[in-house]
Amino acid sequence: MSKRNEHQTLIENVILILLFVAGANFFIFLKMAGIENPAMAINSRINEPSSILHLRISIGGAIIGMLILWYESHIHPKITKRFSSLFFRRLVWQVDVAFIILIPIFVLNIFFGIIEDKLSVKLAVKESLAFMATGLFLSFFIYFYFLSILVSFLRRLHTSFGQHVFYNYLIERYTEPLEENRTFLFLDSNDSTRIAEELGHVKYSRFLNRCFDDIINAVKEYEYDIYQFVGDEVVFTWPASQNDKGQAVHMYLSIKNQFRLFDNLYRTKFGVRPFFKAAVSTGKVTATLVGGKMKNIAYHGDVLNTTARHLGLCKKYKRDILFTQFYLKSLGHPFFEHELIATLKLRGKANESKVYALKY
């Protein structure tokens, strides 16, 4: 992962942890509104200002938030990697997150009992168990559990559709058409017709869902937006930049490696091995919101047609990924070995197009 992406990921995680902290404090604010000493309402043994209570709840919220983010990034994918069903993957998440919330609360209550309240370990454990039997704890657990679901949903939305999509919808950036210079990466399943006939529509849909999940997991460290899913095709896009360093190629190689890792799983569950061909190009597009009440961001421009044409040439030239001269030019410097494999005039185009491929 690049330093830029590491820095961005760190910032995003900090924001999410702060959201957990703010959510925990908001619960206390709602629960204790109108009580002069909120700390007394929770535990009659202590007589401390509400600032101490908020400090405790902030520490607890931060720890729970960090544990949930760490679990979602590192543990949950490993536990559920062999589950093709989204239902079972989410079920595992829901059970595990419940324990992630319960255990820190129990441990932190013991810790604060020993450090601040000068209790013995035995008495601190007893007090912590007593607190977890109260209605206050139950309401906090339910509240924090649904807060975790909300944060997880926002995180998955960000991961699935890219960092800019949700933000652009909120600010209605594309209410008026805007011209942008963008790179597009088209991915399309090979032999989709044959695979669909072999698996049947329902099983084929499960197969594609698993493929798309693995594709998203493979490229989560990169900066991108998902323009659209169309059948067995997915289109990535991001602003063109000379700092790109061949991102499209690296993304595609990461996806190939992801499928290689789960090769046995696909053959066991579906009897087929996924393979996606790709095409990449860069050019100017007009971006705008379309669709009336059900709005979507639409990109209009010749670059989309050119990329789609190159995608169709993969089979002809027996190459995994093809890209245009416009993409190479946008990089400023080629960050990977490539070779010219054809110069041809695409149907409907006045000028000839150069077709490049990775040089293995």
Helix and strand arrangement:
Blueprint: H1 3-31, H2 38-42, H3 50-79, H4 86-115, H5 121-131, H6 135-161, H7 165-171, E1 178-189, H8 192-199, H9 201-218, E2 225-230, E3 233-239, H10 247-261, H11 263-269, E4 276-290, E5 296-300, H12 302-317, E6 321-324, H13 325-331, E7 338-344, E8 353-358
Parallel strand pairs: 4-6
Antiparallel strand pairs: 1-3, 1-4, 2-3, 4-5, 6-8, 7-8
How would you sum up this structure, described in words?
It is a single chain. The chain has 360 residues and is α+β, with helices and mostly antiparallel strands. It folds into two domains: 3-161, no CATH class; 172-358, Alpha-Beta Plaits, CATH 3.30.70.1230. 58% of the residues lie in helices and 17% in strands. It contains 13 helices and eight strands. It has helices at residues 3-31, 38-42, 50-79, 86-115, 121-131, 135-161, 165-171, 192-199, 201-218, 247-261, 263-269, 302-317, 325-331, and strands spanning 178-189, 225-230, 233-239, 276-290, 296-300, 321-324, 338-344, 353-358. The chain is elongated and about 80 Å long. The two termini are 23 Å apart. Mean pLDDT is 82; it is low at 35-47.
> How far is the N terminus from the C terminus?
23 Å
- The overall average pLDDT, rounded, is 82
**Beta strands, count:** 8
Quick one: biggest sheet?
A: 8 strands, mixed
Number of helical regions: 13
By helix and strand content, what is the structural category?
Answer: alpha+beta
Gyration radius, in Å? 26 Å
Shape: elongated
Query: From N to C, what is the helix and strand string?
Result: HHHHHHHEHHEEHHEEHEHEE
GO molecular function: adenylate cyclase activity
Keywords: Membrane, Transmembrane, Transmembrane helix
InterPro entries: A/G_cyclase, Nucleotide_cyclase
GO biological process, one term: intracellular signal transduction
